[in-house]
Design brief:
Largest sheet: none
Distance between the termini: 31 Å
Strand content: under 5%
Structural class: mainly alpha
CATH architecture of the largest domain: Alpha Horseshoe
CATH class of the largest domain: Mainly Alpha
Number of helices: 12
Radius of gyration: 18 Å
Number of domains: 2
Order of helices and strands: HHHHHHHHHHHH
Helix content: 55-70%
CATH superfamily of the largest domain: Tetratricopeptide repeat domain
Length: 230
């Protein structure tokens, strides 16, 4: 996602603070509201609330994050970025129904907002509705077939459903070398299923060496499905 120049410093802070949050927070876009930059006083207060909420996310203080984001939502009503964060916070609290409402609200305002759309699919995945999640991510792939995150999620859905042949085909479609650790973590999951724990660890170790903090998002996905590779 691209960030307007005026918002770049805040976007950098956002990407850093979210490195250990949910997988789908990795793809958050920058602030979408035009309010930022239009009114300096409001912008400063809103930035303070946002940065505080992101710090709460990093410290796993989701109730505190929700308090700040709810106040931010009042100041920046109908901002897809803020609504997506509210949905993410509710997701961390496993309040999936409330989370879905916020993601839907974000998409009402910006139908092609990738983070919120992806998060709806991720909710299905977290609810273990793998067939529905698979169909959802496949539909998203029609618009962005080269997206490695979507390729990874399609593979994981097939993997979780025990569809070995389909999972193998999905695995081959994940781009390598890629811009994300997707290929490495898909390979690790595959080797783990085959019972080769050593090889699975080698893939994870390689991903950590190459991608650094980017792997946190994929490792959280492994935690979600109970796949512990150390």
């Amino acid at each position: 996602m691209r960030f307007p120049i005026a918002r770049r410093s805040l976007a950098v802070h956002t990407r850093s603070a979210l490195k250990n949050v949910l997988l789908f927070l990795a793809v958050l876009a920058g602030l979408t509201s035009s309010v930022f930059g239009q009114q300096v006083a409001l912008g400063r207060e809103a930035r303070g609330l946002l940065q505080g909420a992101l710090t709460d996310f990093d410290n796993k203080k989701y109730d505190d994050a929700l308090t700040k984001l709810t106040e931010l939502d009042k100041k920046l009503p109908d901002d897809p970025f803020v609504m997506n964060l509210l949905g993410a916070a509710h997701t961390k609290k496993k309040d999936y129904g409330q989370a879905r409402q916020y993601f839907d609200r974000a998409l009402e305002k910006q139908p092609n907002f990738f983070p919120a759309k992806f998060n709806l699919g991720e909710l299905l995945f977290l609810e273990r509705k793998y067939p529905e999640a698979l169909e959802f991510f496949r539909q998203m792939q029609l618009a962005d077939p080269a997206n490695e995150l979507l390729q990874f999620k399609v593979f994981l859905c097939e993997f979780q459903m025990g569809n070995s042949d389909a999972a193998a085909k999905a695995l081959k479609k994940i781009r390598y070398p890629g811009d994300t650790p997707a290929w490495y973590y898909a390979q690790a999951a595959w080797e783990s299923k085959k019972g080769d724990a050593k090889k699975a660890r080698e893939y994870v170790k390689g991903a950590r060496f190459i991608f650094g903090p980017k792997v946190a998002l994929f490792e959280e996905t492994f935690q979600d499905i109970g796949l512990n590779i150390r």
